[in-house]
Design goal:
The complex is a heterodimer of chains A (359) and B (599).
Chain A: E1 2-7, E2 9-10, E3 22-23, H1 26-42, E4 49-56, H2 64-77, E5 80-90, H3 97-105, E6 110-116, H4 120-126, H5 132-145, E7 150-156, H6 163-171, E8 177-182, H7 190-196, H8 205-221, E9 225-228, E10 231-233, H9 240-247, E11 251-254, E12 259-261, E13 266-270, H10 274-278, E14 282-286, H11 289-302, E15 307-308, H12 320-327, E16 331-334, E17 337-340, H13 348-356
Parallel strand pairs in A: 1-4, 1-11, 2-3, 4-5, 5-6, 6-7, 7-8
Antiparallel strand pairs in A: 8-10, 9-10, 12-13, 13-14, 15-17, 16-17
Helix pairs in contact in A: 1-2, 3-5, 11-13
Chain B: E1 5-12, H1 18-28, H2 46-51, E2 59-66, E3 69-76, H3 85-92, E4 97-103, H4 110-121, E5 125-131, H5 140-151, H6 169-179, E6 192-201, E7 205-214, E8 216-218, E9 222-225, E10 230-233, E11 236-240, E12 244-247, E13 249-251, E14 255-259, E15 273-276, E16 295-301, H7 307-320, E17 325-331, E18 335-342, H8 345-358, E19 363-365, E20 372-376, E21 381-384, E22 396-410, H9 415-424, E23 428-436, E24 439-447, H10 448-462, E25 468-478, E26 481-488, E27 491-492, E28 498-501, H11 502-519, E29 527-533, E30 536-543, H12 559-574, E31 576-579, E32 582-585, H13 588-591
Parallel strand pairs in B: 1-3, 1-4, 4-5
Antiparallel strand pairs in B: 2-3, 6-7, 6-15, 7-14, 8-13, 9-10, 9-15, 11-12, 11-14, 16-18, 16-19, 17-18, 20-21, 20-22, 22-24, 22-25, 23-24, 26-27, 26-28, 26-29, 29-30, 31-32
Helix pairs in contact in B: 7-8
The chains are: A alpha/beta (359), B alpha+beta (599).
Chain lengths: 359, 599
């Protein structure tokens, strides 16, 4: 079983963010962590925990005591495997040596740093509070404190950025894992209105894909493997927690808008506004067979592990479109395991949709 | 009794206020209580009210007291659009008189004249009425003069009304009673009734709208449809008030309906004569000529598995619309569907909208075509209304295209623009008449195929909406026509083929591929789009392969959100049609008709 904890607080809101997160507010934080701790305490699951992921928002921006309380509570309430992967999402500007040491001491063994870009101007436009210098400093601090498993998040498709060069610089700091996402323009975000008003922040689709493919080649040469569409890692440094999502492991989410999955057919989600969350309301969704199939295909094709045809409730292999895709090497089939040819990762959605239409 | 009946219709150019006047007449005669008044009562179809047009004709019976005598006025509404001209002629045959409405702000327009001539041909008493006198731009005297000069009807005594405000409506009613002759005919003679329309009622079967010329008909009578040779027993007779109301009988001079548990509407041909089986009339009424569709297109269900639903929908629509024709068609691109024939583009539009609305079916419509006569080199003659059936060019000796003679009414300043347009549409100039200082009639002979292309829109924009237009079919003429094919990834897509004049072929081929490039989304593979005549490629565009969709993160295990996003896209996919390995949005098939400027 895996545990996700959501920390919905940030120092500032980024222009592209459509998430449940708020800036500052000490009183709200106090109340939030009270509720969160209670939620963990009341959880009736008793399976061994293989990984913990503290995400956000920006978990590193809240008082580090809160993080300690959360981890202590989890460890007191669940049996956590000794070498469980425990990740904390962090922002470069809130990572002092002292703080990092504290995190290390309370048991966090993996950092995911939201770098996004190494171009200060771009960072400013995006509403990020850090700069390139702070990125390097945080990574250096992390190394010195003894974090050996550090991941960075980068955005693909921003104008005036050279993602390959950025990666080369970051790798000097012994980064083990890179998540590279194409920036998605969400409804009701400042980014959306910026673009509607003619702002030229993003590269076009073809340029995005070229950047993405070049990045993949560049990282592969340096022995970083793409184990999921957007995730690259040195061997042994794949995020166990995220793999869990893709292969259908059971997980529990604590906190605002956090999601849980029973590993079978039931997904639940906490409310995404504070008031409702404080009341303890959860949305429950029981997946139909068809929806479960959709998830298996969708999640499986996003990672190098693929999916198992025999896990589906219908026979996909006799569909014309499926056969065509296998014949054209868009899908790679090995026995009952089907994977997406990494050459076509850029259009995984389209391919997944075509397969879903076979249902 | 007959002496107190007046059968009349209202004819007018579109938008001159026909339905509004009908409403007012019903209101004043108390046929409809004011509180039940729904604007434009006779336009009962949702679509009719929405588009502000009358499609089906609906009769209504009104009572009117004049000089202490009660008169029965039967109003038979008529459609105003040129597509439905034949329906006008049908209602005329059931009347003795016609009210000709002319909009005082517009004057005599193309359909005013066309309808007036039809009424004159049908020997009707025509009563001009000047409408919209409430508008500041109304020119009453000028309009009267125009009616006299252009149509040749005396108009000085014509009532000047505002149907909208209800001004002078009584003058119209008085005039109907005084000037329209009472129906002739003999109650004692054998039954002779004209079926002037029909519709299908789920409970009563086919309902025939009839005008009794001689004799009478009542429930229980055995009747014969003379032309169809079918016999039935009458289960109900009645009149329209305007709702159906059962009566004991209908007799000479009256207008009403009969029901006879007729399950098949094909037994009821409009224009047929109904008589009594026991004592038939010796002489049937002349009837109508059968209307031939002028525009054809393919209709296919977006979801191919709903072919039977589509068939059902067409059958049901045909029950109420005898002019709709359809035969099964198989397209390599679109699968099983129907080749449908219509009276015009508006008719096509109405039918396709009704299929989608009333039967909840998503359909694909292919580009409309007219029916060509093809003479093959071996002497064989074909009628081709589906471009994909056109034989190869080497086997064709000659193609003849249907022509229309068109009259365009316009203020003089637009004559140049109209002549340019007609010339551009391969028209042959026939005549130009100055009706008065502010109005010109221009006559052209034009290929029908050009009119269904985009003539109306072009005419409107060339004349700022001031010109009006009417046409009638006018034989066939040989023309240098070619079949233009569209190839997707090298494969011919039969549903996109069109027949076009040689001189337009290059330009249109280029425009179609450009347009398709905009409409068809990028696919997994590169898709070349080509236009060809025979084996010769005349235009080419390429849709480059899709490179990117979204590499979004599944934040905090929110798989549901991601799945929902996918499902939403999946819904969108359904509107796509798979042709070979290319996905095409269903609107692509019709869009090739709506191209930007040709120049």
């Amino acid at each position: 079983m895996r545990i996700y904890v959501h920390i919905p607080f940030c120092e500032s809101k980024c222009v592209y963010c459509a998430f449940a997160s708020v800036v500052g507010n000490v009183d709200l934080q106090q109340k939030y962590f009270q509720t969160l701790l209670k939620e963990i305490e009341q959880c009736k699951e008793n399976e061994t925990v293989q990984s913990i992921y503290i995400g956000g928002g920006t978990p590193s921006c809240v008082d580090k005591k809160f993080i300690e309380q959360v981890l202590d509570k989890i460890k007191a309430h669940f049996r956590v495997e000794e070498n469980a992967e425990i990740t904390l999402e962090a922002n470069p500007c809130s990572l002092s040596k002292e703080k990092l040491k504290f995190y290390k001491d309370i048991g966090i063994n993996r950092l995911s740093v939201g770098v996004q870009s190494l171009n200060n101007k771009v960072l400013k436009i995006l509403g990020r509070k850090h700069n390139k210098k702070q990125v390097f400093l945080s990574l250096k601090n992390a190394l010195q404190v003894g974090f050996t498993n550090v991941s960075v998040d980068l955005l693909i498709g921003l104008k005036n950025t050279n993602i390959k060069k950025d990666c080369a610089k970051l790798l000097k700091y012994k980064v083990k894992h890179i998540s590279a996402y194409m920036l998605q323009v969400e409804e009701n975000t400042p980014l959306k209105s910026m673009i509607e008003n003619g702002s030229q922040i993003l590269k076009n689709d073809d340029e995005c894909v070229r950047d993405y493919e070049n990045l993949a080649k560049f990282l592969q040469k340096r022995k970083m493997q793409r184990y999921e569409i957007s995730n690259f890692a040195f061997e042994g440094y794949e995020s166990q927690h995220n793999i869990g999502y893709w292969v259908g492991d059971k997980y529990i989410g604590f906190g605002l808008s956090a999601h849980s999955f029973d590993g079978n057919f039931v997904r639940t989600a906490n409310a995404s506004d504070f008031e409702t969350y404080f009341k303890g309301e959860r949305d429950k969704e029981v997946l139909s067979k068809a929806e479960k199939d959709e998830e298996i295909i969708m999640l499986g094709l996003r990672c190098k592990y693929g999916f198992d045809l025999t896990k589906l409730s219908f026979d996909l292999s006799c569909c014309q479109i499926f056969k065509e895709m296998v014949d054209n090497n868009i899908l790679l089939k090995d026995g009952s395991i089907v994977k997406l040819n990494p050459k076509h990762y850029g259009i995984s959605n389209t391919i997944i949709l075509k397969l879903l239409n076979c249902q | 009794m007959k002496e107190k009946i007046r059968n009349f219709c209202i004819i007018a150019h579109i938008d001159h206020g026909k339905s509004t006047l009908a409403d007012r007449l019903m209101e004043i005669t108390g046929s409809v209580a004011k509180r039940d008044m729904q604007s434009q009562l006779l336009d009962s179809m949702e679509l009719e009210r929405e588009k502000g047009i009358t499609i089906k004709l609906t009769p209504t019976r009104m009572k009117y007291n004049f000089e202490d005598e009660e008169y029965i006025l039967n109003l038979i509404d008529t459609p105003g659009h040129v597509d439905f001209t034949y329906e006008v002629s049908r209602s005329l045959a059931a009347c003795e008189g016609a009210i000709l409405i002319v909009d005082a702000t517009q004057g005599v327009e193309a359909q005013t004249l066309a309808n007036a001539y039809m009424a004159i041909d049908a020997n009707l008493e025509i009563l001009p009425v000047i409408n919209k006198i409430d508008l500041p731009s109304a020119q009453i005297e000028k309009t009267k003069q125009e009616i006299e000069d252009v149509i040749g009807l005396p108009a000085q005594e014509a009532p000047c009304i505002s149907a909208k405000e209800g001004t002078n409506i009584n003058q119209v009613l008085e005039m109907i009673v005084k000037s329209i002759p009472a129906p002739k005919g003999d109650e004692k003679a054998p039954l002779k009734a004209l079926v002037f329309d029909s519709f299908y009622d789920n409970f009563k079967g086919a309902i025939c709208l009839i005008r009794i010329f001689d004799g009478e008909v009542k429930t229980g009578d055995k009747i014969t449809f003379m032309q169809a040779g079918k016999q039935y027993e009458v289960t109900e007779v009645g009149v329209f008030l305007p709702k159906m109301e059962e009566t004991q009988k209908l007799q000479s001079g009256e207008v009403g309906y009969i029901a006879a548990s007729i399950k098949s509407l094909s037994d009821v041909r409009v224009g047929d004569t109904v008589t009594l089986t026991s004592t038939p009339t010796s002489q049937p009424l002349p009837g109508y000529k059968v209307v031939q569709p002028v525009v054809y297109c393919g209709i296919f269900a977006v979801d191919g598995s709903r072919y039977n639903d589509l068939k059902e929908a067409l059958l049901k629509l045909k029950l109420n619309d005898a002019s709709l024709q359809f035969t099964p068609e198989v397209s390599t691109a679109l699968g099983f569907g129907f080749r449908c024939g219509f009276l015009g583009l508006l008719h096509l539009e109405i039918i396709t909208e009704r299929i989608e609305r009333e039967f909840n079916l998503e359909i694909i419509t292919t580009a409309p075509s007219v029916s060509y006569k093809v003479v093959k080199t071996n002497g064989e003659q074909l009628e081709i209304s589906n471009p994909s059936n056109m034989p190869p060019a080497v086997e064709i000796k000659e193609i003849l295209e249907p022509m229309v003679s068109a009259s365009l009414f316009t203020p003089p300043e637009y004559v140049g623009a109209i002549m340019d347009l007609c010339q551009q549409k391969r028209g042959v100039y026939k005549n130009l008449v100055y009706l008065d200082k502010s109005r010109v009639r221009v006559d052209y002979r034009l290929p029908l195929g050009e009119i269904i292309y985009d003539f109306f829109d072009k005419l409107k924009s060339a004349t700022k909406g001031f010109a009006s237009f009417d046409y009638s079919l006018d034989g066939f003429m040989p023309a240098k026509l070619v079949k233009l094919d569209i190839l997707l990834k090298g494969e011919k897509c039969d549903a996109l083929s069109i027949i076009v004049h040689e001189s337009f072929a290059y330009a249109r081929g280029r425009m179609i591929v450009e347009k398709l490039k905009k409409i068809i989304p990028r696919q997994l593979f590169e898709v070349p789009l080509q236009a060809s005549i025979g084996n010769k490629i005349i235009a080419r565009e390429t849709i480059s392969a899709l490179r990117k969709d979204v590499l979004a993160k599944c934040y905090g295990g929110d798989v549901t959100r991601k799945r929902k996003l996918l499902e939403k896209q999946k819904e969108g996919k359904k509107r796509m049609r798979q042709i070979g390995s290319v996905e095409i949005p269903s609107e692509a098939f019709l869009s090739i008709l709506k191209l930007d400027d040709e120049s």
